[in-house]
TrEMBL record:
Its main location: cytoplasm. GO terms for molecular function: DNA-binding transcription factor activity; sequence-specific DNA binding. It is found in: Cytoplasm. It holds the Pfam family Response_reg. Keywords: Cytoplasm, DNA-binding, Phosphoprotein, Transcription, Transcription regulation, Two-component regulatory system. The lineage of its organism: Bacteria, Bacillati, Bacillota, Bacilli, Bacillales. It comes from Halalkalibacter alkaliphilus. Residues 2-119 form the Response regulatory domain. Coiled coil: none annotated. PANTHER family: HISTIDINE KINASE-RELATED, TRANSCRIPTIONAL REGULATORY PROTEIN HPTR. GO terms for cellular component: cytoplasm. Residues 403-501 form the HTH araC/xylS-type domain. Transmembrane segments: none annotated. This is Response regulator. It comes from the Bacteria.
Length: 505
């Protein structure tokens, strides 16, 4: 619990702090305010259960504070502490719902007896408020979501459900189905989550009727859970809900434990094969991660080439098509990793109008089916829009093509890099690349690559346990004799002689 002491006299606030038996009454946090204006701000933010206030203060006095508390519908208990045994103050304290009135100087026994009664009354009234609120939708969501963590429904909740549905559910196994809302919110409700949940929950509970209940899972972002007990009605109900909502729903195993029933439903949803209407034809395939292609995506975005981007995306899509497997989990992975890549590039180019970026979410059919063809189109449109925004940015910090080529060489020096490969990657002619690179770095690409490889080799030669042929292979030379020849040509000594100089030094 929390309390606040409002008084313009510091010694009075300190006296109350010392005299009240806070720990005894479960009050852990005590705030202070020198006038009603400051107190209003603290009360609004912290909502303390107990308020001590003086009546005669500068700026905003106790009467104004009591009026404000009364009109704001706080459930706090207010105790007036005043040096004035004045009818005007007493009348206002009563009128605006003060719990009690204590005169200064403060008697410790009277103070703690009053505080005790205030705490007890607040606790009793709070129980009544919670009891009334239990029938509220939000409270039901909390109660059911809590049961998903605890494993079972509380006895009190079971009694209420049995009364509501007229069926026995105590110690009875249940089915749990999961309805993912993220795509629905974006594609059918224009991003309005509250409207989506209100509408979908209403539809679900109308269809479920006495067969079960649908609630919002507050433990997970954007998820509705359907709880069912009647085995005979499960398939028909789920089919009707899916058709009405237009979204895949996956059901778990029947089980007495909420946790087990939920976990199996969650696992089934993740593996729901959208290319085969839910049939789990493959279990061994790992999800595809966009971040694994981040380097290739980077070059496509920096070069402003949608052609290059489409080639990358087509390769990814081909993996799904060849295996005829696209699990529901893949959508969440794709969306979250695209968001990471998008945020990185928008930050890189100081683009702040993030909401203007196209959101490709229109790949669900009206009947709830998934269209992979539309998914591919939508994802390509997202990247196309991102590339156009980056390319058209006024304050673009994009490196020029030659600098990008240098970075590519530096990161891939250990590979067999050919000039034609670089030309194909950056959509530039070999002649242009050779000429521009020499102008920028005063070396040919061949000499620059050799320099990087030799520098890396010199670092590796510091490790006495690495063989010369191992170092040669690590820096991109498959032939160690050729490596020795190149090294000597550039450094004037062989790799072994260089290593010996390190030992001498």
């Amino acid at each position: 619990m929390k309390a606040i002491i409002v008084d313009d006299e510091k010694h009075v606030r300190e006296g109350l702090m010392l005299l009240a038996e806070w720990d005894k009454f479960g009050i852990e946090t005590i705030f202070e305010a020198a006038d009603g204006e400051v107190a209003m701000k603290i009360i609004s933010e912290q909502q303390p259960e107990i308020i001590f206030t003086d009546m005669n203060m500068p700026r905003c006095d106790g009467i104004d504070l009591l009026k404000w508390i009364h009109s704001s519908d706080f459930h706090s208990k207010t105790i007036v502490v005043s040096g004035y045994d004045d009818f005007k103050y007493t009348k206002n304290a009563i009128t605006y719902g003060s719990f009690d009135y204590i005169l200064k100087p403060i008697n410790p026994n009277e103070l703690n007896e009053t505080l005790s009664r205030a705490v007890v009354e607040w606790q009793e009234q709070n129980k009544k408020r919670l009891s009334v609120l239990e029938n509220d939708k939000v409270i039901w969501d909390h109660l059911f979501s809590s049961a998903l963590n605890n494993g079972n429904l509380s006895n009190r909740l079971v009694e209420q459900l049995e009364s509501e549905f007229g069926v026995r559910i105590s110690n009875r196994p249940c089915f749990i189905a999961i309805l993912p809302m993220k795509i629905l919110i974006s594609s059918k409700y224009e991003g309005d989550a509250d409207r989506a949940f209100t509408s979908v929950l209403l539809k679900c509970n109308d269809i479920l009727d006495k067969n079960g209940i649908a609630f919002r899972n507050i433990n997970k972002e954007e998820e509705i859970v359907l709880l069912l007990w009647e085995k005979a009605a499960v398939k028909k109900v789920i089919r009707t809900v899916s058709k009405s909502i237009g979204c895949p729903i996956e059901i778990g195993e029947q089980h007495a434990s909420f946790i087990h029933a939920y976990e199996t439903a969650s696992s089934n949803l993740k593996n729901y094969n959208l290319l085969e209407n839910g049939m789990q034809v493959v279990n061994s395939l790992s999800p595809v991660y966009l971040l694994d292609y981040s380097e290739e995506i980077k070059w496509a975005i920096q070069s402003g080439s949608m052609e290059q981007m489409n080639e990358i995306l087509d390769r990814i899509f081909k993996t799904f098509e060849e295996n005829n497997y696209f699990p529901y989990e893949q959508i969440n992975i794709w969306e979250s990793q695209f968001a990471i890549l998008k945020d990185h590039w928008l930050k890189e180019y100081e683009l702040k109008k993030r909401d203007l970026l196209y959101r490709g979410v229109h790949y669900w059919k009206d009947n709830g089916g998934f269209s992979f063809c539309k998914f591919k189109e939508e994802k390509k449109k997202e990247f196309d829009h991102l590339i156009k925004m980056v390319s058209g940015c006024k304050f673009q910090k994009e490196k020029n093509s030659v600098q990008m080529i240098e970075e590519f060489i530096r990161k891939n020096y250990q590979k067999d890099i050919k000039l034609q490969d670089i030309a194909d990657r950056f959509f530039l002619s070999r002649e242009y690349i050779s000429r521009k690179f020499k102008q920028e770095y005063d070396e040919t690409i061949t000499d620059y690559l050799m320099k990087i490889r030799i520098e890396k080799a010199k670092e590796l030669l510091k490790n006495p346990y690495l063989k010369i042929y191992e170092i040669s292979d690590s820096v991109g030379y498959q032939n160690d004799k050729y490596f020795i020849k190149v090294f000597k040509k550039r450094e004037g000594i062989t790799p072994s002689e260089f290593r010996n100089t390190l030992k001498t030094n």
